[in-house]
Amino acid sequence: METKQMVRYVAIGAVALIVFVIFFNSWTDVEPGEQGFVFKPFNTPSITEKDAFVEGTYFILPWNEMITYEVVNKSKQYVQKVMDVNGTDVTVEVSVNYNIIPAKVANLHIKHRENYTIFIDDKSKGAIKDVIGRYTYEQVYSTKREALEGEIEAILERDFEGNFLNLNYVEIADVNLPDNIAAQIEEKETQKQRNLTAKEKQKEQEYLANARIEKARGDSSLIVSAIFKAEAIRLEAEQISKNPQYIELKKWEKWDGVGSPYGNSNVFGDKAISILKSN
User: Fold this and answer.
1) Which helix (H) or strand (E) holds 217?
2) In sequence order, what are the beta bridge partners of 58?
3) What average pLDDT score do residues 122-138 get?
4) Segment (H or E) for 51
5) Alpha carbon of residue 154 to chain centroid
6) How many other β-carbons are positioned within 10 Å of the β-carbon of residue 172?
7) Which range has the worst mean pLDDT, 55-64, 66-75, 195-204, 249-258?
8) Using alpha carbons only, what angle is made at residue 113 by residues 111 and 118, rounded to the nearest 5 degrees?
9) Res 75 pLDDT > 90
10) Which segments constitute the Band domain (predicted)?
């Protein structure tokens, strides 16, 4: 009797332990930056596309599985050797920034499984090769990077559409050319800078020359003015020396009508008579 009770207690304990383990293992987490869906192998369909689980802890039946994908922004770098429009080899480093569209992780899984990155790689490499091949190496190296990035983005946006991926941006991080071509471009750019510097110096010299001319003109006008003043003084001195009455004329020209233009020494007071007091 005691043996039967012992067996029953052991069985109950074993069942309780199994239930506890199952219950404990039925809790699953969706980490920050992830979204998930539940794979139900005994259901039809086994994946429900509309169900999306955001960050948190969830209880699922032990025979089901929570599958998660990161939906945060990610970047993939591609270092690729391609030919420009003239057949010259150009090595470019391109970054493609993307993310899985939130709430579409189940759709992505159904279409691509975990190998969706292979789809991204194939489409990105094809777009890079296609766009770089439309331009010369010089345009790729220096003048058309933004245009190239825009064209690659346009191609990838079309490719990602319907594949539950969102393209954020494309960036050409680096461009490498054969050494001889890179040196030629560098020399050309250096010469452009030299030409610009020479033009600026020429403008500066022209400005300084014009400034000197204006200063010289200003100085010469002062000299001419001084010459005229000196000539006027000389002529006035000649008038005085030749005609003493010239002084009297100047006094009358400057008289303000008060008193005598000859001063208070005039015996006639304010009368305009040129007879002076004797001392």
Assistant:
1) helix 179-242
2) 28
3) 93
4) none
5) 21
6) 19
7) 249-258
8) 95
9) yes
10) 30-205
Task: Return the higher-pLDDT residue of 41 and 19.
Answer: 41
The overall pTM is greater than 0.70: no
- Cα separation, 157 vs 96, in Å, equals 11
Type of residue found at 202: Q
pLDDT digits 0-9 by tens, 33-54: 999 999 988 888 888 877 788 9
218 vs 36, 204, 205, 207, CA distance in Å?
A: 85, 21, 20, 16
The Cα–Cα gap between 90 and 134 comes to: 12
How much is the pLDDT for 273? 45
Cα end-to-end distance, the chain, whole Å: 172
Q: How far apart are CA 60 and CA 40, in angstroms?
A: 10
For residue 272, what pLDDT is reported? 47
Q: Give SS3 for 278.
A: coil
Distance CA 232, CA 259 (A): 29
Residue reference for tokens 């150009």: 90
Look over the chain and give the mean of its residue pLDDT values, rounded to a whole number: 79
Query: Does residue 135 sit in helix, strand or coil?
Result: coil
